[in-house]
Specification:
The complex is a heterodimer. Chain A is an alpha+beta fold. Chain A has one helix at residues 42-54; strands at residues 2-5, 11-13, 17-19, 24-26, 36-38. In chain A, the strands form two sheets. Chain A has a three-stranded antiparallel beta sheet, with no helix packed on it. Chain A has a two-stranded antiparallel ribbon with strand order 2-3. Classes of the chains: A alpha+beta, B mainly beta.
Chain lengths: 55, 397
């Protein structure tokens, strides 16, 4: 699963390396860190948009 | 499975509302900690026809307290000062560094997570009772004595999870009537061997909502807060004792002036700064945990050892003479042209000696072994202040 560094600094992640500000990186299974946000696939975003439009 | 302490971490974050937990995102290298929950259990020794003292335990009021030791690097030190003093408006920018002023006043509360093997021990509503800044092996080492309003780490499942379509996880009330207090939407918990992310922490204090999951777990199964994957920004070196300058003076302007030149500064070979908030963790109605943590009278002391070179300090001790001390520590350069650098300044405009020993030993130099009490200074209208220049924007505090 891809995660994005949502902080304002480059972060060193154990077992992954340096992740730049705003960079999206494929993280290993079990990754759990509140400085990162899951990057939703475009299809998921579009489906959500359609659902909102229907409402 | 065994767990090594080296794999642990300390994560911290200031709280928006005191006592309301947030997910800590600032990871700080930890030297040691002994924070614990004092449960105050008491054997129920009421007479029940037994020939034995007790067959159960009853609850007393809980306390959460202990110490945490970390190294005083410029970015971490900002959080430590933020926990014990009041931060003013920060100025500056990333290329030149940020300047953070601290004065005596209302400090922030923090949520802290400490990884303990496979679970996380979280304390929230954390306040610092005492901050000790000293130097070991040339490195600034800071010990925080903390008190917290509550903890969350391991819970117990109150309602069985029966497989597909489970979205509610209900905790039992054996530990507390609000066992979910301290958990936050976005936290991951381990239930029935499966990690789930909390989407909502219910207002009923017992229910957690998660995305639909197919967990099977029984009443009484443990629930634990899952550790985060550590992420850290570039870590600065701690302030080094060899890069500190201590200026004494008749007033604070004089003391500051004496920090400008190493030849005017006093060479000290041991130093400790103690800042106390004298907290009161107040138990009472509303919670078994401390309902609030109040700051009582603030105080500070400085301990210094310097070579005995004249009668002045002993005279100052006997005469209760006011002196001023400015302590400045320089770290690494921040600006690429080497014109700004990490910097910490502590100003004490009025200190008086409570002890000044001149112990003698065969073959050893005589030293002034000094303890200063930090006084409120009427001229400066303050007892102490601090200023920190580092690479952290004021928004992180």
């Amino acid at each position: 699963m891809k995660y994005k560094n949502i902080t304002e600094q480059d972060l060193s992640v154990i077992g992954v390396g340096i992740v730049k500000v705003g960079q999206e990186v494929e993280m290993p299974k079990g990754f759990n860190n509140a400085n990162f946000k899951i990057v939703k696939k475009e299809k998921e975003v579009e489906t959500k948009k359609l659902e909102i439009n229907k409402e | 499975m065994e767990y090594l302490g080296t794999n642990s971490y300390l994560a911290i974050k200031p709280e928006v509302t005191a006592g309301v937990a947030v997910i800590p995102t600032i990871f700080v290298p930890l030297v040691s900690e002994d924070v614990k929950t004092v449960v105050n259990y008491k054997a129920d020794d009421r007479m029940k026809g037994l020939d034995w003292k007790s067959d159960s335990l009853l609850r007393g009021n809980r306390m959460h307290e202990g110490s945490i030791t970390v190294l005083g690097d410029p970015d971490t030190l900002g959080h430590l000062l933020n926990m014990v003093m009041e931060k003013g408006s920060s100025t500056g920018s990333a290329p030149v560094g940020y300047t953070h002023p601290f004065t005596v006043g209302a400090s922030k509360t923090y949520t802290i997570d400490i990884k303990k093997g496979m679970y996380v021990q979280r304390y929230f509503g954390v306040k610092v009772d005492e901050l000790d800044i000293e130097f070991k092996d040339n490195q600034m080492e800071c010990t925080l004595n903390i008190k917290a309003q509550g903890q969350v780490s391991i819970g117990t499942l109150g309602v069985a999870l029966t497989g597909a379509g489970m979205t509610s996880i209900v905790l039992d009330d054996e530990y507390d009537i609000n066992p979910t207090r301290g958990l936050v939407a976005g936290d991951k918990i381990l239930v029935g061997g499966v990690e789930v992310e909390i989407t909502v922490v219910g207002v009923d204090g017992v229910t957690l909502t998660c995305a639909s999951t197919a967990i099977t777990a029984s009443i009484g199964d443990p629930i634990s807060l899952v550790p985060q994957t550590v992420s850290m920004g570039t870590l600065s070196d701690p302030f080094y004792f060899g890069n500190m300058i201590v200026g004494f003076g008749t007033d604070i302007a004089d003391a500051i002036a004496n920090t400008a030149d190493r030849d005017d500064a006093n060479m000290v070979h041991e130093m400790k700064i103690v800042i106390k908030n004298n907290l009161l963790a107040q138990n009472g109605t509303n919670r078994i945990d401390p309902y609030q943590i109040l700051t009582r009278t603030k105080e500070a002391q400085i301990e210094i050892k310097q070579l005995f070179t004249g009668p002045e300090q002993r005279q100052a001790w006997f005469d209760r003479k006011a002196q001023a001390i400015s302590i400045v520590g320089r770290g690494k350069f921040i600006k690429s042209d080497f014109t700004t650098w990490e910097l910490v300044t502590f100003n004490f405009p009025n200190v008086k000696l409570t002890d000044n020993d001149n112990k003698i030993e065969v073959g050893e130099f005589i030293i002034d072994d000094q303890k200063f009490e930090v006084m409120y200074d009427a001229v400066e209208a303050e007892a102490m202040s601090a200023e920190l220049v580092n690479k952290s924007a004021g928004t992180v505090y």
